[in-house]
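[job 0412] stage=fold_complex status=start
inputs:
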Amino acid sequence: MAEASPKERIKLAAGNDAEQPADDLETLRRIIVGPEKTRIHHLEKRLDESGTRADELSRVLPDAIVRCTAKDQKIARSLQPTIEESIRVSVQKNPEVLADAIFPLMGPGIRKAIASTIMGMIQSFNQLLNHSFSIQGLKWRVEALRTRRPYAEILLLNTLLYQVEQVFLIHRKNGLVLQHVVGPSVKFQDPDLVSGMLTAIEDFVRDSFNVGSDQSLDTLRIGSERSIWIEQGPKAIIAVVIRGTPPLELRDRMADILGDIHLTFNQALDEYDGDAVAFEAAREELRSCLGTEFKASEKKTSPLLWVISIVLLVALALWAFTSLRLYRRTEAFLAALRAQPGIVLTGTERRGSRLLIFGLKDPLVDDPTGLLSSQYIRADRVDYRWRPYVSLEPELIMMRAHSMLQPPSTVTLSLDKDVLVASGEAGHPWIRHFYELGTATAGISRTRADNLIDTDMQALQEIRQRIEGVRILFPLGASAITSDQEPLLIHLSGDIHALGMLSKQLDRALGIRIVGFTDASSSETANLKLSQGRAEAVRRFLIDNGKVNIAIMAVGMGSTSVADDGTDEHLRAGSRFAGFELVNDGGFMQGKGR
Amino acid sequence: MIKKKICMLGAFAVGKTSLVQRYVHSLFSDKYHTTVGVKIDKKPVNINGTPVDLILWDIYGEDEFQAVRSSYLRGASGCLLVVDGTRRYTLDTAHDLLKRTQETVGNIPVVFVFNKFDLMDSWEIEPIQLDALEKQGMVIVRTSAKEASGVEKAFTTLVEMMLEE
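[job 0412] stage=fold_complex status=done
writing structure:
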C-alpha cells in the first residue's frame, strides 16, 4: 500500500481524534516524525548488531580494496605491517606452512639471482675487455702507472657515468643511522659516524646561515668525483653517496622513498629510541637507489679493434666458406655413393672432423675411394661401417658372372633381363663351362649362346676336311705304299695327331677309317682282298711313322669305285686308292666324303 | 643493536676530547672542532648484558667567542657535563649548559664529570660544592684523562642511567 502524504496523515489523525480524544501534541509528533523515527530505529539496530555490520562490510570490502589499490599504494603500505606480522607469527608457529608456500618460488628466484649476478659479471668483463685492447685503454694503463692507482679505478673514473655507492636512512632528530646499504665493492667508513657528522654538518649549515625550516642542505660535493645528495623529511633523512653525475630523477626517487618510509614507519620513527630493528624492512627500498650507469661507448673504434675485427671476420668467412664447401662436397660424395651400384646407404654421422658412413655393400664393389678423391675429400677423414649383401643390379650380376665364368677375351657377355647371353668365339670347354655355371650366378635364370662360335668344333671340321680329302694311290695289282705317296701320309699323320688331341679336348670318341679300293680289272674276290691289303698298308704306315693317338681301322671295299668304268686308263688308275673317313662313336660322321 | 647519542659538553679546554680519546679510537681528526664544532666517535659497549653502540658527540667547548649549538643536542639520550676542577668558572658553564640541554631535549640522564683529578692541589672547586651537587641529585664522577682514571666509570654510569630510563 502506498505511504500516506503528511496532509492525509493529519486528516486521518483528526478523524481518529473525533472518535477518541488524546494528546494533540503527541498525535502531531507521531504524524510528522513517526516514519523517520522508525527508520532511525532500524538504522540503530543495524549499527548495533555486529553480525549485520560484518555482512554488509564483507559485501563492499573487496570492491573498496580494488578501488583503493587502483587509486594509490596507501592500502598496500597500511597493510604491510599487519601482513609482515602475520607472516612472522605464522613462521614462529609453523615454518613449514610458509616454506611449502614459497617453495615453488625459490627455484626461479635463485635462478634469477644467479642470472643477475652473472649478467653483472659479464657487464664488468665486457667493460674491461672493451677498454683493454684499445689505445684509450693503454693510455689509462699509463695513467694508472703514473698516478700509482689501480687500473680498475682509472677505468671506472673514465667510463662511469654515475654510481650510487651508499644510501643512509638517518633519524632526523638524533642523527643516528637507521639503515645503511652499500653497493658492491664499495669501501666505506662506519655509517654511524658518517651519519652523525652529516647531521652535524647539516645543523651547522642551518645554524650558520639562519635558513628557514623549509630549507636545508641538499647537496655536498667532494672534489669532482663524489657528491652527497640529501633528502630531508620531517622525521628522517635519506643521504646517498654518489660517484659521478647522476640524473635528476634520482632525487625524485629519493623523495618517493622517503615519503614511503614516513608513511610506513611513521610510528616507529616517533618511538625510535636507538633500536633500528623496525627499519629492516626499509632496506630493500633503499637498495633500489643503488645503481651504476656507464658512459655509452664512443663510436670511434680503435684501429687495433678494427684489425682484430677484420681478422676475425676473414677467419669467420674462411671458416664458413670451408664448411660450406666441405658440406657441398660431402653431399655430392654421398649422392654419388647412393648412385653407386652394389652400395646401399643407411645413414651418416659426423664425429668431429670425421664422417662415418653406415650401409650395405656387395663384396664385389671396392671402397669408394675414387669418389672421395673426385670430391677432394681426404680418405682418412671418412670411416665406413659396411655390412655385406648380394646386389641384383645388372652391373653387379655381370661382375659376378665375369668373376665366376672368367670368359676369354674373344667372348662378350651381356644380360637380357635374367638371361646371360654369350657372343663371339670360345673353345669348347669354356662353352660347356658357360652352360654349366651360368645359371648358378645370382640374378641369372637362363643362358644363351646363339652367336657364340665353338672354335674347337670349327677346327675339327677343318681337320676333317683335310683328312677326308687325301687319297693314297696304288699301282695296278699292288698294295705297297709307293715312295711318291709317303710324303702325303707323313703330312696326314700330323693332322691325325691333331685330330686325336682335339678329340680329347672335345671329349668325343673319334676315329679314322681307312677304306681301300681297286679298279675293276680283276675278280671281285681278288679286288676285295687287294683293297683290304691297300687299307692295311696305309694303316700300318701311319702307325709306324706317325704319332697315332686315335683309333684307326682299315676296310677293303673292292672295286666299288665309281670312277673306273673300264674305258679310261687314267680314271682306272684313280680308282686304285685308299681314302679316309672320320668316324664318331664307331659310325661315320655327318657329311663324310670319299 | 641499540644506539644511543651522548653529548660531551663543557667549557673550553676542560678535557672533553681527552676523555673521549681515552675512551675510544677516533676516526675523525680534531680539526672538526674548529670547523664544524663537533667531532663524532663511536664506542660499542656491553652494559649488564645489553650491547649498546654509543655515538659520542664531542661538542666544541663553550667560551666567550663560541656558544654550543643547541641543534647538536637534539636527540641526545644522555649528557656528560665536563668540569675542569682547576677552573671554578667551568662549573658555572656546566650549569648553564645543563639548563640549555634541558630546554632543548628535556630531562635526560646527565653525569657531572670533574676532570683533571690528578691536579688536585690546584683545584679551585671546593668539596662542599661537589656535595651540594650530589644533594641536588646530580651524579658526579671524578676523572683524570691524563692518568686514565674514572673515565670508564663516567661513561658506564651514564649508560646505566640511560638504560634505566
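[job 0412] summary: Chain B has one domain: 2-164.
[job 0412] exit 0
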